[in-house]
Structure formats: C-alpha cells, structure tokens
Amino acid sequence: GRLISLFALGVAVAGPTMPLLFSGFNRKYVMLLVLGLFAVCNTAAVFMADFDLLLLVRVLPAFFHPIYCSMAFTVAAAIAGPKDAPKAVAKINIGVSAGMVVGVPISNFLAETFSLTASMAFFALTTLGVLIATANFVPSMPVKKRMSYGSQLGVLKKPMVRASILAVILLNGSIFGVFNYLAKYLSGVTSLAPSLVSVMLFVYGLCNIFGSMVAGNLLTNAPLLTVRAFPFLLAAVYIALFEGGSAWPFMAVLTVLWGLLGGVNANINQFWLSRSAPEAPDFANGLFLTAANLGTMFGTSVSGVFIDAFGMEYVVFGGLAFGALSAALVLYQCAHKNMNPLAAKG
After folding, report:
1. Is residue 158 a contact partner of residue 277, using CB atoms and an 8 Å limit?
2. 193: left (phi over 0), alpha (psi -120 to 50) or beta
3. pTM of the full predicted structure?
4. What is the DSSP string of 204-255?
5. pLDDT in tens, 250-265
C-alpha cells in the first residue's frame, strides 16, 4: 500500500513544480536523466532486502515522473507542429493506456508466478529499453527561448488558465469518480464472476487506446465541437448505466462506449490546459498532471459518498455531478473569447 500510495503522492506534489524547474534545459537530455534515474532505482529495487530502502528507491523517481510525462507531451507536439499536435499527443496517451493494459497484467503475472523481485526486474529492463530508444530516436531539443520561472508562474494569473485547471479537475473527476468503482459495480450490480470482471476491465483499457486514436483526429479537425459535446455524451452513458447496468449484455456495450470516452477524456484534458498556456508548455503539462490527479481524488471521494448514502448503483451520480459542472464551465469558456483556450496565442 505504501509503495503505491507514496509514489502517487510524489507524482501529485511534483506535478506543477519539477517540470517548471527543468523547463530551461535540453528536453532530450532531461528525459534521458529521468529514465536513467528510473532504470537505476528499479534495478536497485531488485536487490533490496530492507523495506525502507525499497520504499526510498521507489518514491525518489516519483518526483521526476511528471518531468518525463510533461516533456513527452511537449516534444511530441513540437515535432508534429501546431496543426498535428493533438494527433501527436494522442499517441503519447495511447502509450499510457497501452502501458496500463499490457504492463499491469504482465507485472502482476510475474509477481504472482515468480516473485516481486521478478516484477521489479521487468520494470528495470523496460525502462532501460525506453532509455535506449529515447537516446536513438528523440532529437536534441534545446530550449531556444528560455522563460524565467516567474514568467511561467505568471500564467496562473490568467483567468483562462485557472478556469481550465478547474475544468480538467471536473472532467477527470467525471470519468474516474465512477471508473474507480467499476470492478465493484460489475461484481455487485451486474453480478459478474471475477474472471468476467477482469475481462471487462481489460476491454475498458483497450477501448481507452482506441478512444485516444479517435481523439487525436477529433481535436485536430473539430476541437470546439469535441470539447463541448464530451460531457453530454458521458452523461448519456451514465444515465444508461443507471437504468440498465444490471443487465450483462447491455453493460458490455456501455463499457465499450465508456472506455472510448475515457480515452477521449485524457486527450481533451491535456489539450484544453496546454492551449490555455501555450507560452509555457512544460509547466502547463505539469499542471495538467496535477489537475488530473486532483480530479481523480475528488471524483472518487464524491462518488463514494453517493455509494454510502444510496448504494453502489448510485455511483453514477457522482460522475453526473462532475460532468454537469464541467459542461457549464466549458460552455462558459467557449462563449467568452478571453476565456477560450482555442483563442490563445503563443
């Protein structure tokens, strides 16, 4: 529990700060530094016999995790150019989803079949492979125009940025506030066997990947329509879930649709916040990571209140509440030019 929760806490704390501190350095070299740290710490974890030391080498890389993720988004967008940036960022999100869909089952299999040491060794080898790939395929990207830390922090003074941070919190809360209870919902409300629950979670993850693929094209060709329509499409899925989630075939269809929207959501969040502060891309992507994690935390908590008060099937009301608030905020931003990220220059 501590190995997971403290890592997540480190990511949340470092989200807005570490990308800011490293924003003036060559992005390729910073990415290699972070991957090197992960490779060393994961390798050290293989040989750790003391839990406190294992916790240290697990948590230390967490503070550098947001640097790599934020720069991966920035590098992808910069290589693709402004027009195709959403498609490039969608590929990064596809990688994140694929890592969850493929990496988690593999690491769990190794831990259960062999040992936790074998799982840690898998992490170390995978990170080493990514380090080699980054060294060979990512071009050198020195920062041509370095912004001061004060200038980057100054973007927080923009009402549009603050509104976009809140929008990302609400959008992510609308998805993960319900998704984090999906396994319990499938077993308790839909009455699925544990094996089928695992299959459904796997299907959801696969649909996330396809959702990211679709989102890249949607945000390139019709960004405003995509952002406006998303909360209403998600609400339709949740209402259908409340009405018919106990029926297994219908629930399977809803899980596919929900998974697709989950993939679209991740891309909308990054797109909306990065477009709010295009002059400070690394800092904006760090803010996105923190806002997304805060949305997950708040959304899960609120949905838990509905479960405690009314029962598991009412979990969707937490998602609907966050979705309604996000729809109101996004529509307000779209209606005012000085608040609309699509009107931002930089």
Report:
1. yes
2. beta
3. 0.81
4. HHHHHHHHHHHHHHHHHH-HHHHHHHHHHHHHHHHHHHHHHTTSHHHHHHHH
5. 999 999 999 999 999 9
